[in-house]
Structure formats: C-alpha cells, structure tokens
Amino acid sequence: MLEANGLDGRSLIRRRAGLRLWLSAGWLGLLAIAALLAPWIAPHDPLAQDLFLGRLPPFWMAGSEPGYWLGTDSLGRDVLSRILHGARIALIVALVAGSITCVVGATLGLLAGFLRGWVDVVISRLIDIWMAFPPILFSILLIAVLGPGLTSIIIAIVVIDWTRFARVVRAEAMAQGAMDYVASARVAGRGRLGTMMREILPNVLPTIVVLLTLEMGIAVIVEAILSFVNLSISTDDPTWGGMISEGRTSIHQAWWVLVFPLVTLFLTVLAFSQLGEGLKDRFDPVLR
Amino acid sequence: MSFLSIRNLSVRLKGGPPLLRRVSLDVAVGQVRGLVGESGAGKSMIGKAVLGILPPSVEITGGQIVLDGTDLLTLPPKERRRRIGATCALIPQDPLTALNPSHRIGPQITDRLVDILGWTRADANTRARALLEEVQIPNPDRVLRSYPHELSGGMRQRILIASAFAAEPKLIVADEPTTALDVTVQKQILRLIAGMQARHGTALLFVTHDLGVVSKVCQHLSVLYAGMVVEDSAVTDFFAAPRHPYSAALLAATPKYTDPAAGLHPVPDAVIDAVRAEVAAFDAGGR
Amino acid sequence: MGQCRHGVGMAFLRLLAIRLLTTAITLAGVAVIVFVVIRVVPGNPIAMMLPPGATEADIARLSALYGLDQPLVTQFGIWLGGVMQGDFGTSITSRQPVLDLVLGRLPATLELSIMALVMAVILGGAAALTGTRFRGGRREGAIDVANGMALSVPDFLWGLVLILLFGVLWPVFHISGRVSPALDLPFTTNFYLFESLIRLRFDLWADLVAHMFMPALALAIPLAAIIGQLLKQSLKETMNLDYVTLARTKGYGETRVILREALRNAILPTLTLVGVQFTFLIGGTVIIERLFSYEGLGNMAIDAVINRDLPLIQGIVILFAVIFTAVNLIVDLLYAVLNPRLRHA
Description:
The complex is a heterotrimer of chains A (288), B (287) and C (345). Chain B has 287 residues and is α/β, with parallel strands linked by helices. Chain B is built from eleven helices and ten strands. Chain B has a single domain, classed as Rossmann fold (3-Layer(aba) Sandwich). Chain B has a six-stranded mixed sheet, sandwiched between helices. A four-stranded antiparallel sheet of chain B has the order 2-1-4-5, covered by helices on one side. Chain B is globular. Chain C is an all-alpha fold and 345 residues long. In chain C, 77% of the residues lie in helices and 0% in strands. Chain C has helices spanning 2-39, 45-49, 56-65, 72-84, 98-133, 138-152, 155-169, 192-198, 202-239, 242-249, 254-291, 297-306, 310-338, 340-343.
C-alpha cells in the first residue's frame, strides 16, 4: 500500500547517492592525475629552499610572487608543489596499505567466520586484544620500532587495521555460512575451501569493497597523523601531515601553510568516505 | 443524536490512489457501529482518521469529521489533539505491541487522566484499580506495578480495554480488538467490550472483518469496498436482507456456526466485477 | 518473585565472571605484545640517558640497573611480578615511578574524554530528536547531511579545522595547554575541572573549560554524528510502533510522545554501540592532546615513545587497555540495568 511513496523516496536517495559517488570519484581521479604528473606539473622543486622567499602569501594577496600560487612556507618551499608531491605519498599509502590490510584482514575474518572452531577462537581473541590497544599510540610505537619510512607506515597500518576487516567479514561469513545454499553446496560435494571461495566470498565481496574504500581514507589520515608527530617518512619529504605540522606552528604568521594542505587532506578523506558510503547504498538492494 | 458524524470523507495516499471515497457514516450516542470489509477496504483508515493518527504518507483530501458538533478538520492541530484525547479512545488490535515495554502498567492507564485531564495522582490510581477490577483482572495492585512483558496477551488486552474506558470517553474506536487473540480468549474479550460499552453508555466504532462479531455487538453497520461505503444498515435489517449484492455475497461467504456443513461460498467474480465497475463509475463522476 | 530474582542474580554473576575472565586474557595479551614490541626498539635508551662521552661500562651498569641485560622472558617475569604489587617500574627519562606519572596524568585525559562524551551526547541527541520531530522535512535532510560530513572526517582533522576557526579567525578559545600558566592552582587532586567546581573557583573553572572546549569538541564531533544517526534511526522505527500510536490518541503532543514514549526504548540499541565508540574516542585523545598541547596521558605517551622510555610506554598502553575494557564492561552492565526485560525476567 505504501510502495508508491517508498519508491519515490528511494529513487531520490539513489539520485543523491549517485551525485555523491561521482563527486568523490571525480576528486580522487583528479588527485591521482596530479600525483602521477607531479614532477611535470609542479611549478617548483618541492624541496628547494630559498630563505629570501620565505612565507610568501598566496597569489591574490599583497606581497605575493608570481609563480608561487599558494605561497611558500618558512623555508621558502612552494606550497602548491609540495601538495602535489604529497599526493603521491598519500595515494601510494592509501592504495598499498589499504589493499594489504584488506587481504590480510578479510582472509582472517573469512577463515574465522567460516571454519569456526579453534580458528575462530584464536582470531576472535586476537581481535579483542587488538581492540584494547589505543590505535594511534600503537601506530606511533610501531613506527618508533620500525624506523621512519614509507614501508614502515604501510606495515604499521596493516598491523593495526586488519581488525576492521576481520570483524565485519567474520560476522558476514558466519551469517552466510548459516544459509541453505552453503549447505547444499556442501551436499553437492564441494570441499570446505571450495565452498568458502566459491560460495561465501562472492557474497561478502561487496562489503569488502566498501570497507577497502573506507580503509584507504583511514590510511591517508594515519599517514598524516604520523607525519604530524614527525615520525613518518622524513621531515624533508613533502607529506601533507608534515606540512600541516609545520603550518600549525606558524599559524598566526602564515595561515596558508596550514590551510591548503588541510583542505586537500579534508577533501580527500571526505571523498574516500563518501565513495564508500555511496558504494554501500549502491550494493545494498534494500538500502540498509 | 449522533456523536460522531463523518461526511464525504476522502483520503488518499500522497500522490497516489484514493483510499477512502467520500465516506459518510454516523455513530449515535451510546450506540455501536460495525465497520466491515475485506483487508485493504479502508475500514481501519476511517478509525485512524477520526483519531488523527493517519500515517504521514496519507492525506485527507476532503470531507468533514464532526465530533460532538465540531468539525475536527477545521481545528488547529493542537486543539484537535486535545479534544480527541479528552473525548475519544482507541482499543488497538495487537495487545502485545500496544503497551510501552519500558513503563509499568499503572502509569500507562493513568497518564492521560493526570497529564491531560488534570486528575490527582491518587484519584487516578484509585480509578485504575477499579477499572482493572471491572475487567476482571485478579490482583489488580500487583498488575499495576508490573511491566507488560510479565503479562499474557489476554491480560494485556483487558488492560488496554480498561485504559480506553479510563477517562469515560464518549467514543471508542475498537480496531479489530480480537483478531490477534486465541479463539478461546476472543469470546471473553468480545463479551467484555460489549458489557463495558453498555454499562458506560459509550459510542463504539467497531472495525472488524468478522460478520459474526458484528451480529453480537453492533446495532448498525457499514460495509466497505475499496474505500467506498456500499451499504449502511441496521444490523437486524442487514442479516435479514442485505441490500447490496456485494454485502449479500459477503454474508454468504461467512461460515455459519449453526451450519458448518453448508461450507464457504467465496464472493462470486460477477459480484466483484459489478462492485468494481461501481467504484470506477464513482471515480469518473468526480469527487 | 524472590526465587525468580535469585535466578537473575545468578545469571548476572555468571555473566560477570565470564566477562572478567575474558578481560583478564585480553589484558594479558596486550601486556605480552607491548612488552615484545618495545624490546625490539632500535637505539639504546640507556645510551640516550647518559651524557655524551659515557663509557661502555657506564651503559652496562645502568642497563643492569633497569634489568635490560636479562633475557626477554626473565624481564617479562620481573615486570609482571612488579605489576602484581602495583609497581610498574621507573621512568627512564624522569626517574619517577611510572605509576605516579601515569596516575598524575590520567585525570586530565579522563576529564577531556568525559567532557567530549557529554558534548557528543548533547549534540547527537539534539540532532536525533530534531530529526525525528521534523522527519520527512528539510530539517531532517539538513541534519542527515551534517551527520554524514561529521562522520566522514576523523577527530584529528576536526581539531585542525577548529583551531583555524576559533583559534585564528575568531580567537575565542585557547588552542594550547590545559590551563593558563599564569593561574595559581590550589588543588590537591589532578581533577582540576571537578575540583574547581567543588571549591567554587568558577574563574579557574572557566579558564579550564576555555582550554578544554576545542579538543573536547574535536573528539565529540564524530561520536555525535554516530549517536545522531543511530538514535534517529532507532527513534523513527519506534515512532511507528502501536504503543506510540496509542499515546497519540490520548492527546499528547508530538514532542512529548517522542520524549516519553519513544526515547527510552530507542536508547537501548544505541547504547552498546556508543560504548565501543567511546573507547575509540578515548584512543583519539592521544593525537588530539598532542594537537592542542594538552597535558594528558596521550601527550605523555608520544613523548615517551620519542624518548624511548620503555617502562613508561608500557605503563601507559596497559592503562589505556584497562580503560577500554572497563568501559565495555560498564556498558554491558548498564544495558542490563536499563532493560526492564533483563531486570525483571
């Protein structure tokens, strides 16, 4: 009786979700192109210092220098060039750390949820222990142990965030495993591993894709946080978090050093998250 | 003199098809009117419209609901709510979901008396106790302190009936009050409602799909099909000789306790086609 | 009745026993992992403590003093034995007992977290109630959009945005520290916010709040969005239930129906999820305290990592783990207390 109205609202939500999806994908695509072409499109060397050009304001303000569109930091490095090069590091971390975390976490979750028994007991207990760690402190600790560098950051993200995937995928796999089609696949003679890969995994895959998108946003943030506490790559490399950390200290003298990387980071995190939410709506036939 | 008088009430799904088609009916003071029809015919919708609890997806497109001489639809929402609360009550369909699980029974009966009608807490409690005795609930003091989940379905329906009569309303809408209950309990509850109605002299709008129930409780009935009143008769006349072919078919389709061997006669397709044509002609004639 | 209550009591005790046992296992796991991870830290912390020019012998002597020359298992045994007696070791950098240092900073972090929780509940609750009251309208749409934004961006970024807005553009709040350094604090505990209220020192209280407001708000925004979303969904489902419809016929206004009939039943499903989210909030204090130079546990933890102060790191991580598991335990118990079905089953 209420279907007509329900459908109306639903198509509206769907349209809004579609817009959100395209905007997010658009921003991330732009960022990817900028990251790929950074060495060619960046107006300056992101590491070149020139103390005579320190703290130049962005182009529309008095005292700006042509060619330094978004101004310079206290060491005279070009903010725009550093943001473009920072996008490379951010996106590498997002893609690599996100994917490895996804594979590790989803595998463990799938095994725990489908095999049950002692495998589940061990993995669930591990998840509990991991949940009792303050994640940011844990990642800072890991970087201290592993030493700074891109690889360390990626390892730290994988070690900390695998539980995000494992928890959700375990619950989903358990729910799917209880369904009749799984039982009939088993009756039809499929092995345990075969059932898991051929019957359970495809049904859990949409959830995994959504989580992966969200995880990429989280990875970008973690990298920024680690750069912020000066534990990331190295203090010289252009990272958004490092720029924000520096901008925070000179906020009253040169706000642009903080604002531009912050806006870029904000939009990127928002885009990953909105992309994930949009995909969730797309995948979910009954719209949650 | 009628306490409730509905005139040409039209209701539709927002941006959708009509659910009620110029419905008119009266409920006289102290009288019982049955509302009969198959599911989806709009019988519950009438009760909801009177009590102002139509779902948000539904809108009233025309007509009047005159309660005690005032058209409710012309009143501002706040005043309408207050007036309905002071003079009307609902006996809901499903006793299992109609009591708030996190409040005790006592306050759920007395809240209207205290909050809306300004009784003292003590008076309201005395009243609630007396009502529970009237609906034959043993150990009323204990029940008043209980939570809903501690009581059986039949017990909860008695409580809801007591609660409906608490403020001595002039009109009660009973929305299929026995449908969700066991057959054994149904009869007791029906007798209870009829007895309470007679003692308190309350007008009753009784929504049901069961003509057997109508014959026991009601004086008048309206038969609905697709949101249209196809017959409005006194109960005695109706059972003697239904005027509309659809009502006649409905009556024939009702199993008779006296003659179960007679079997069921589903409403014939010809009758359905005829009444559908009638609805279509009505729609074409303008609302 | 009495017997029935007795049965519930037994079930409750059993639940509690099981929960305490799994909590103990979790904490033991945390202790082992931290212990192992920080023992492989490169860079000798002892060498960092000594002035340049110290001899190998000096380093060895000091390592022995802190037990760092023993095998890993022995070190863990010694440490665990100490923990059992309330001795978490001595900080390498400040040479004070770890327990004293950690407990000295704990109140600052607790006050910040609780302030943030209160803000999140107020903001999220208001959003959910407004959204429910005006459901289907423009106001609900606006609230949904705001919730979606707040949820998508983590506390760290909100902190930076707040610093820009209320620290620089319109400087109304402090963006650094816990209290103005010029103020004299006549306090006996480190619960400054609480004690200033008890002592009726509202001038100090106002200064503390002005410092705490922005870090607390940054922590509160994502949690407020979660509360707002869950509670609104739960409220809207409850608003369609029969007992709410029945209450409407009694003459109550919409607001009153939401508050009295729907709210209490809608809160329960939200509560457990908020419990988990609150532990995430406490975890977030680490970076937020750093961002706002707030002298709490998290800020101390980052310094401890930078200085390779192993005993202190260990103590802080364990304390965080204890807080997280305690919060989860409390939420479970609260759920049992608030749910009449469990209380009077």
